[in-house]
Design brief:
The complex is a heterodimer of chains A (60) and B (190).
Chain A lengths: L23 H15 L5 H14 L3
Chain B lengths: L5 H21 L2 H17 L10 H20 L9 H4 L8 H15 L2 H11 L5 H8 L3 H19 L20 H10 L1
The chains are: A mainly alpha (60), B mainly alpha (190).
Chain lengths: 60, 190
């Protein structure tokens, strides 16, 4: 992966929406792909993990 | 969920976004969840480094991304998913047209170079700004933009010109939410 930055870094990016770069149909589809996963219930293993951290914090 | 630590509460609220980001990076649900677990542990260990008031989502995405790349380096010599088995697991839902197209998009995403994929996903799917995405990836905003432009061109090539005209309708039962029928109407009109 190259971390080199191009001269075009001067572009502020301020104010322009990603919609200007990506066609609407593609943007919609990308967002939907993402929200489909977000809408899934979070597996219990995460609740267990967080509970564990919480308990540790309490010095249990 | 009875986590009352404010930091953990916020992390909990961001788990769905982390899972989605992880999955779009690696294309594999189980591996993505492993990444999220690592991310939560790292975030917890380093929670003192997080400056309250700054963007926790971007901070967590940065950690997840770092976990992903360090894992990639370790996996270098392992066999890549030759038959696209992982990619195929992305959607095990009943065959809906719209679902199939989403799966095509997932597959196509996995064809992109990592840097292009993450830039596109961060800005166009997660809702981070260009500036936040640039921070997460530790590059300039202009670099993010040019990566997105390349990702877009490649995706359109992979999905085919027709992709723009395919109706994204999710039949009947799932039509509500996410822009739903109106988005469909707009897609048809364009």
């Amino acid at each position: 992966m190259s971390d080199k930055t191009k001269p075009d870094q001067a572009a502020s990016g301020q104010g322009d929406a990603p919609g200007e770069q990506v066609p609407e149909w593609l943007g919609n589809r990308l967002r939907r792909m993402f929200t489909e996963v977000m809408d899934e219930p979070v597996p219990d293993e995460f609740k267990a993990l967080l509970k564990q951290l919480e308990d540790k914090e309490r010095g249990a | 969920m009875d986590a009352h630590d404010p930091f953990l509460d916020q992390v909990t609220a961001l788990l769905p976004a982390l899972r989605a980001f992880g999955r779009s990076l690696c294309g594999d649900p189980a591996r993505a969840d492993d990444l999220v677990q690592d991310t939560v542990l790292k975030a917890w260990t380093n929670r003192n480094q997080f400056q309250s008031g700054s963007n926790l989502k971007a901070w967590l995405f940065t950690i997840l991304r770092n976990c992903y790349y360090s894992e990639l380096r370790h996996r270098k010599f392992e066999v890549e998913d030759p038959e696209g088995v992982c990619a195929a697991q992305l959607s095990v839902a009943p065959v809906h047209d719209a679902r199939l197209h989403l799966r095509d998009l997932n597959r196509a995403l996995q064809e992109l170079p990592h840097d292009q994929r993450e830039a596109l996903v961060l800005v166009c799917a997660t809702g981070l700004s260009y500036e936040e995405a640039a921070d997460v990836c530790q590059v300039a905003v202009g670099t993010i933009k040019s990566r997105i432009a390349r990702a877009r061109d490649r995706l359109i090539e992979l999905l085919g010109e027709d992709a723009a005209h395919v109706t994204d309708q999710i039949s009947g039962d799932k039509a509500q939410g996410n822009g739903g029928p109106r988005a469909t109407a707009r897609a048809k009109a364009s």
